[in-house]
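Lab notebook, design round three. We kept the backbone fixed and only want residue identities now. Task for the bench partner: fill in a sequence for the structure below.
Input structure tokens:
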């Protein structure tokens, strides 16, 4: 195996990842959208880059998300750098999906938050299986 540059390695990991890797600047504008994000959310990179994160956030959650995002950008701190957050999201076709993600807050050399990268996995199938199992258990208990 030959020598590969750090940039080459990073670029190929980000682009090849099946999970969505998205970077948004401090204003919540998407600046990086990998092939995993395209597959999960249905927007091509050219459709997503330069747009607000609102394209993947259900309308009723946008206000709360934007408030939280501003807080993280102001403080540079988020508990989701070490914990997973499970939330509904929205595909390009309007379908709701369930996602889990963690973030990395990127900071300038002076320590100010300049944006965040989210590492996102679509967990819709698992969530639907768990919901069906709970409903079946509830239904069974009601008939016993």
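Proposed sequence:
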């Amino acid at each position: 195996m030959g020598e590969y540059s750090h940039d080459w390695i990073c670029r190929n990991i980000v682009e090849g990842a099946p999970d969505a890797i998205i970077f948004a600047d401090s204003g919540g504008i998407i600046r990086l959208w990998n092939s995993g994000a395209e597959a999960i959310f249905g927007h091509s990179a050219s459709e997503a880059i330069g747009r607000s994160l609102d394209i993947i956030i259900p309308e009723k959650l946008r206000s709360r998300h934007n408030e939280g995002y501003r807080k993280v950008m102001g403080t540079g701190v988020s508990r989701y750098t070490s914990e997973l957050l499970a939330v509904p999201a929205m595909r390009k076709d309007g379908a709701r999906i369930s996602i889990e993600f963690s973030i990395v807050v990127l900071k300038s050399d002076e320590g100010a938050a300049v944006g965040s990268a989210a590492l996102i996995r679509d967990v819709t199938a698992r969530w639907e299986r768990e919901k069906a199992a709970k409903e079946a258990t509830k239904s069974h208990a009601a008939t016993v």
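Keep this in mind before ordering anything: Residues 8 and 73 are 29 Å apart (CA to CA).
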